[in-house]
Amino acid sequence: MKMTKETLSSSWQLGPFLKADAVNPCLEPDTTSRFVCPMTGGDVQWEEKDVFNPAAVVRHGSVHLLYRAEDTVGRHAGTSRIGLASSVDGRHFAKRPEPVLFPAPDAFQHLEWEGGCEDPRIVQDEAGTYYLTYTAYDGHKARLCVASSPDLLSWTKHGTAFGNAVNGKYSDIWCKSGSIVTRREGERFIGAKVNGKYWMYWGESHIYAATSDDLIRWEPVETNDFRGYTAEPVLAPVLRRRQHRFDSTLIEPGPQAVITENGILLIYNSRNDEKHGDPAYAPGAYCAGQALFDLVDPAVVIARSSEPFLVPDKDYEISGQVNHVCFVEGLVYHQDEWLLYYGTADSKIAVAVCKG
Questions:
Q1: Which of 40, 227, 301, 349 is deepest in the core (most CB within 10 A)?
Q2: Domain coverage including residue 311
Q3: pLDDT at 55
């Protein structure tokens, strides 16, 4: 029987997740980390200002976070770079002293400088290659980009995800937050094809879908029937924000989407509208929800949480660069636990735990 909103209970959701208060925040800014920026030649404290919004993956028995870090220099009060931290237990992390993905004088510097490399998500392919979706920000526009690596240390940038799609139609649009559909095999999350294609959820404000043959080049899913009329195909939202709810201002994909027995599970981030949101949550609060998509047609949503499962209520989540923020981007299964990593107030990183 095909699952519908009427036949599904809330049991399709992943959780409950409990914040690991004993160790949180599990990653914080560091004024001692230094790095010679290849764009300026200057020595910068590359994670002095904030660390947040990490991707997460298990490799060789340890949890690795690829996290966004900001310095305090530049016209935009901080360039973002991607750092790497590792942990055996998923709670206590050791950082590498230098970032692993950052703006450089390469073919992509016009996309990344001087805003930087932001907000990664990560999956593997069958052969073990890692694929990172991340936001390249030039200080004016965000663009969803892709990089790949054999070892999490050496990254090959492939440029914008939609650069070649539909004869370049989407090559220069504002786009971010790419969550690729995966299947879990033990502690690995492997990009999974549905009907012969890889799928990805992406976007902010509303959530859209895209497909790919190789996890690098993506084509947004379009529709010819948008509000009953259109002159040409346009982007097709697969999940919309909801007025008077916790996800009333915007929604963005969280970590990699995961195939389950009920459907494709997507954890997503949201913002509560100051005037037309849910008064149970702080105005402007970023909370996390969950949605379930159809296994046959990943563009069809079949269930959605009515309330958020992760809400900012700790001091380090309430006060920071942006107040009242839990922003989820990292999910792993490690030592019989689900570990969910999220940015707190755009300033630090915390973990929440669900027993497997």
A1: 349
A2: 10-355
A3: 98
